[in-house]
Design goal:
447 residues; alpha/beta; 8-stranded mixed beta sheet; 6-stranded mixed beta sheet; 12 helices; 21 strands; 29% helix; globular
């Protein structure tokens, strides 16, 4: 069985050393970093993106591929609506097939409690003029024939999907054509500081002068920020994903019930995952931020499988180096690509659950399985904000498993924020200070 669809050992596309100066440096080659660089380059900024490993080889290439408005926290909805509009034009702009299709996202109700939650979320759908609507049991069966045990659903036909391990590298190539300077295998070790503010970055390949830096480092962001005295209560969860062989399956979109989720891929197979179950490694940050995460743990602790320690060199591993300087090897070079093993017990469980739901299909054969580490925050919302204590540093991290879909919208917002423009959305729920100013941790009405 294959593990990860991207060949991590293929030659790097962006191997040149970085220039000595830029207007903006972006740290991280996931979709948040790539799309921030994209919009900065379009605005005429000289932007350098540094990725310690390969573009999209961590969570941005390992996710489900959903592009959804449905079920979002209301704070994210305006940015997500914009993101979908951007997605609609990206294939033409990128001159590449990204696997983008508006095939809908469907949430399936296992019982009356699910349907009540869906009905409650319709308040937000109506407020934003979405095409989301409830499905009766009969209407659901028309879309998923011969399925068993479900009572109804929630459907947004305009929600979409794309192929993550195809789309993000293609968008990176397009960002380069727009003028962005991209560099793989180029870890940023530390910020360069002068007079109490950012003056550039120290990379393993030399210094780059810039008075503005965007930290979009996914699960590595907290480690990098903490080395500069910035408290970012970010943790990581281990999520397993599998891909079936091509199947004769009627639904072309993405869907999920309480146990498992699936998406029809461009190759005819399904991306098949646990809907909510994930693994979690208990490291120093898990204990340090335990209080902040109590609200979300109380809401959903049963979905988490706890493990005593992360492997060495993981961002929150007990043996991971947490103090270093810019002249020596950093933790970001010791683990170029975070490539966790999938939980094969989860894979077998969801095969069985799928077969019970769709007996006419049975247990699907699995062509590949992999896992990724999702960066998450106590309120399951990202941080999109300038760091007041370090003028010139902007955070774009903690996307909490929602990053692939919202990535183009987030990139546009972060680019404008960095350039001092009006981002066009209320970002107050995404401010860094919400974790230190006495605010109550709010878990929004997301599904």
């Amino acid at each position: 069985m294959k593990q990860f669809p991207i060949d991590r050992h293929s030659p790097a596309r962006f191997s040149a050393p970085p220039p000595r100066a830029a207007d903006v440096v972006v740290i991280g080659g996931g979709i948040a970093g790539v799309m921030t660089a994209w919009f900065l380059a379009k605005a005429g900024q000289k932007v350098v993106l540094c990725e310690k490993g390969r573009i999209a080889c961590e969570q941005s290439g390992r996710n489900w591929g959903w592009i959804r408005k449905q079920g979002r926290d209301p704070a994210e909805l305006p940015m997500m609506i914009e993101a979908l509009e951007i997605w609609r034009g990206l294939e033409a702009e990128a001159q590449a097939d990204l696997g983008f299709r508006e095939a809908g996202v469907l949430y399936i109700g296992n019982g009356p409690d699910d349907m009540a939650q869906y009905e409650a979320w319709m308040v937000h759908a109506r407020a934003h003029g979405l095409d989301t609507h409830l499905l009766t049991k009969t209407a659901l069966e028309a879309r998923l024939p011969n399925s068993a045990g479900w009572v109804g659903g929630l459907l947004t036909p305009s929600d979409a999907q794309a192929e993550p391990w195809v789309a993000v590298p293609a968008l990176a190539l397009a960002a380069e054509r727009l003028g962005a300077s991209l560099h793989e295998g180029c870890a940023v070790r530390r910020l360069d500081m002068a007079g109490g503010q950012v003056s550039g970055v120290v990379t393993e390949k030399g210094r780059v002068r810039a008075d503005r830096v965007v930290l979009a480092g996914g699960v590595w962001s907290s480690m990098f920020a903490r080395a500069h005295g910035v408290k970012l209560p970010q943790l990581m969860v281990h999520a397993t994903v599998s891909a079936t062989v091509p199947l004769d399956f009627p639904f072309e979109g993405a869907a999920g019930d309480k146990d498992f989720a699936f998406r029809k891929r461009a190759d005819g197979g399904l991306t098949l995952t646990p809907r909510r179950k994930h693994d979690f490694y208990l490291g120093p940050d898990a204990f340090r931020h335990f209080g902040a995460y109590l609200p979300v743990l109380k809401k959903d602790w049963r979905s988490t499988h706890f493990h005593m320690a992360a492997p060495k060199h993981y961002p929150d591993g007990w043996g991971s180096v947490r103090q270093w300087d810019g002249e020596r090897e950093s933790p970001f070079e010791r683990m170029r690509i975070l490539n966790p093993e999938p939980n094969l017990r989860f894979v077998e469980t969801i095969r069985n659950q799928f077969a019970l739901a769709f007996p006419q299909v049975g247990r699907p054969a699995i062509a590949a399985a992999w896992a990724g580490m999702i960066d998450t925050m106590p309120d399951v919302l990202p941080v999109i904000d300038h760091v007041a204590a370090i003028p010139g540093l902007t955070l774009a991290t903690g996307l909490s498993g929602h990053g692939f879909g919202i990535g183009p919208g987030l990139g546009r917002v972060v680019a404008d924020l960095v350039m001092g423009r009006d981002p066009g959305h209320d970002l107050s729920r995404f401010r860094l200070s919400r974790f230190t100013d006495g605010s109550k941790i709010i878990i929004g009405p997301s599904l």
